[in-house]
C-alpha cells in the first residue's frame, strides 16, 4: 500500500451525548467536566470480549470521526487565538482526515455500553477506536504549550502538585465572568423552561469579549457588547479581564416570538 492509497475505516459504535449542535459542544474535555455520555458499541463483532480488562482504567482515549464537517483549511483561527494558526498546530475539526481524540473518564461498563464523563463530543458521533489512558506513558506535565502563551508564568505561580485525577492548570487563564442580578433572574427563568444558557455563556466569554470566528459578538458604542448564542442574546460589559453579563434577551423580533420566547418577553418587559 502506498501513502496515497485510500484507507477504509468502520465505526465500532456511536456516542450519545447532550450536545445536539456544534455550537453547544465544548471545545475541550476540560470545559465539559461532569458532562456524561454513553458509547454504544456495535453488536455482533465480539466487542464484549474486546472490552475485557478495560474496567479499572479511570480514563480512556476515544478516537472518533467529525462526521458533520467537510473540507479542511491549512490555516484556522482557534478560539484562543487572535490570529490564524497552522491547522496541525490546533485542535480544529476541519482536518484532511477529520479524526478526533478525547480523553474521557470511564465510569462503568454495562454490556456493550460504556458510561463516560467529561464528554466534549457531539451526539451521534461515530466512534472509531477505544484505548486505555495510561498516565505514566501518556501524560507529559512539563510539555510546552507552543503558541498558547502564559505557560511559564502559570508554572511559576501555581505548584505542580495536584490531587489524583485533577487536570493541570490552564496555561492561558480565562476572563472572569460574572452575572448581574437581572441576568441571573433571567437565566433562572429560562432554566425553568429547559433552556440552560449560563454554562455556555460562561464558556464562550471566558475566552474573551472580542468578536471572533467562534464568538458571535457585536460591540456597541457605549462600551457594551452582545453575545449571540443560538436564538438568545447576552448583553455584557468588559473591563480589563472582568466581564459582567448584564441581561439576556430573545433574538427573535416581537412578531416572531412563540413559546418560551413569548413567555420570557412577557415576564421581563
Tell me the layout of helices and strands.
Elements: E1 13-16, E2 36-41, H1 47-50, E3 59-65, E4 75-76, E5 85-86, E6 99-110, E7 113-117, E8 125-132, H2 135-138, H3 151-157, E9 176-179, H4 181-191, H5 198-205, E10 217-219, E11 224-229, E12 232-239, E13 242-250, H6 260-267
Parallel strand pairs: 9-13
Antiparallel strand pairs: 1-2, 1-8, 2-7, 3-6, 3-8, 4-5, 6-7, 10-11, 11-12, 12-13
Give a structural overview.
With 269 residues, this protein is α+β, with helices and mostly antiparallel strands. The protein folds into two domains: 13-138, Beta Barrel (Elongation Factor Tu (Ef-tu), domain 3); 176-267, 2-Layer Sandwich (YaeB-like fold), CATH 3.30.2310.20. It has six helices and 13 strands. It has helices at residues 47-50, 135-138, 151-157, 181-191, 198-205, 260-267; strands at residues 13-16, 36-41, 59-65, 75-76, 85-86, 99-110, 113-117, 125-132, 176-179, 217-219, 224-229, 232-239, 242-250. A six-stranded antiparallel β-barrel has the order 1-2-7-6-3-8. A five-stranded mixed beta sheet has the order 9-13-12-11-10. A two-stranded antiparallel ribbon has the order 4-5. It is globular and about 60 Å long.
Short characterization:
This protein has 269 residues and is of the alpha+beta class. It has helices at 47-50, 135-138, 151-157, 181-191, 198-205, 260-267, and strands at 13-16, 36-41, 59-65, 75-76, 85-86, 99-110, 113-117, 125-132, 176-179, 217-219, 224-229, 232-239, 242-250. It has two domains: 13-138, Elongation Factor Tu (Ef-tu), domain 3 (Beta Barrel); 176-267, YaeB-like fold, CATH 3.30.2310.20.
